[in-house]
Specification:
alpha/beta; two-stranded antiparallel ribbon; 8-stranded parallel β-barrel; 14 strands; 15% strand; 393 residues
Length: 393
């Protein structure tokens, strides 16, 4: 891996992140992302730098029902020091049962609850980033989860958005409720559900939450595309750590840059095309292991990563198309050998936003959802339908 020096930067006076009995020396968290943060990708990331690496989100219902996919999602490599799991749920009883299972069967060292999903098919049933609007439901879920997690001494955190839209913000109320319930930390993505991933993250909201909750760690999420962005967020908001999502897609070495920056080092990873190609193939091999040597499924899953890895590099449209439909490791190896391996790091063209941002849209919500901050009888009966196998935040 090519490492270059950037202008010297002063070391951040940021202590290790403390989540209950867990100490995260580099206060950086890999955000759970569906279809991305499986054990293969987590391994790649942690080989570059320190932090807390969260598995893909799993629905509470699926976990309680012990579906094969849910059990795969919460599996961790033996050398993962902190087994971090993120749960999604809308029913306090089901969420509590899922947390109890993780604790009693020793399947996790840290549990996070997702209240940030902006996907319409979730919010239209009151789940995800729509859920904190209903204070009674949100309070019950968090209190139940903390109670069950505490029985095993497992720290529980939450991740959320600012709210449904700018007229229906929930993050300050939700943060205080979570703090009072005993969560170990609160993470805020500085966007509303209405924004999806468009526009810019509102770091000023993160700063307000930090000020409102001086007695627990607050983590910032949104628009961290580089180590310099992370440093700037910490300095502008006062957060205790950062959560990185889309910025590391196709760039697992970002965690090396983050650790270096937080330590005051000017070293940054700037891989040439050969190094990227080698990383892609290693990622594919690890994916095969992750999916129980099912090469077809593993290669199907790796396809989405190709555009991210080769963003900004000279590859060629025809070759990019073939990489996006690669069927086997053997074919992948052959396609990678067609690359001009001597091409250097392309600079800014390979950096910045990646993935689909979507566009602002009116959130889909249950009937009369915004009329009151308390559930009515009809909403209570229907909200369990929101517990789907989807993720986001």
């Amino acid at each position: 891996m090519t490492v270059v020096a950037t202008p010297p930067a002063p070391k951040l006076e940021l202590p290790p992140l403390q989540l209950g009995g867990i100490t995260v020396d580099t206060p950086v968290i890999l955000a759970p992302m569906a279809g991305i943060t499986n054990s293969a990708f987590r391994r790649l990331c942690r080989e570059y730098g320190g932090g807390l690496y969260v598995a893909e989100m799993v629905t509470s219902r699926a976990l309680v029902e012990r579906t094969p996919e849910s059990l795969r999602i919460i599996s961790h490599d033996e050398d993962e020091k902190v087994r971090s799991v993120q749960l999604y749920g809308v029913d306090p009883v089901t969420v509590g049962a899922a947390v109890r299972m993780l604790v009693e069967e020793d399947r996790a060292d840290h549990i996070d609850l997702n209240f940030g999903c902006p996907v319409p098919k979730v919010t239209r049933r009151g789940g995800g980033s729509a859920l904190p609007w209903k204070i009674d439901l949100f309070t019950s879920i968090v209190q139940t989860a903390v109670k069950e997690a505490s029985k095993g001494g497992i720290p529980l955190t939450i991740k959320m958005r600012k709210g449904i839209d700018e007229d229906h913000l929930t993050y300050l109320d939700a943060g205080r409720i979570a703090r009072d319930a005993g969560v170990a930390a609160v993470a805020l993505h500085g966007r509303t559900a209405a924004q999806f991933y468009s526009g810019h993250a509102d770091w000023s909201a993160i700063a307000r939450l930090r000020e409102a909750l001086p007695d627990i760690p607050v983590l910032g999420n949104g628009d961290i595309w580089s180590a310099e962005d992370a440093v700037r967020m910490v300095r502008e908001t006062g957060v205790d750590g950062v959560v990185v999502g889309r910025g590391c897609q196709g760039r697992p070495w970002l965690f090396g840059d983050l650790q270096a920056a937080f330590e005051g080092s000017e070293q940054r990873h700037r891989p040439g095309l050969r190094e990227v190609a080698e990383g892609v193939y290693r990622h594919a091999e690890l994916m095969v292991e992750t999916f129980g040597n099912d090469e077809y499924k593993a290669l199907r899953e790796i396809r989405k990563h190709m555009a991210w890895y080769f963003k900004g590099y000279v590859v060629g449209g025809e070759l990019r198309a073939k990489l996006a439909t690669v069927p086997t490791l053997e074919v992948l190896r052959g396609l990678l050998e067609e690359l001009d391996m001597d091409l250097p790091y392309p600079g800014i063209d390979s950096e910045g936003p990646r993935g689909r941002a979507g566009s602002p849209k009116k959130p889909a919500l249950p009937k009369d959802w915004l009329v009151s901050r308390q559930l009515n009888a009809e909403q209570s009966a229907e909200i369990s339908a929101a517990e789907l196998d989807v993720s986001g935040g």
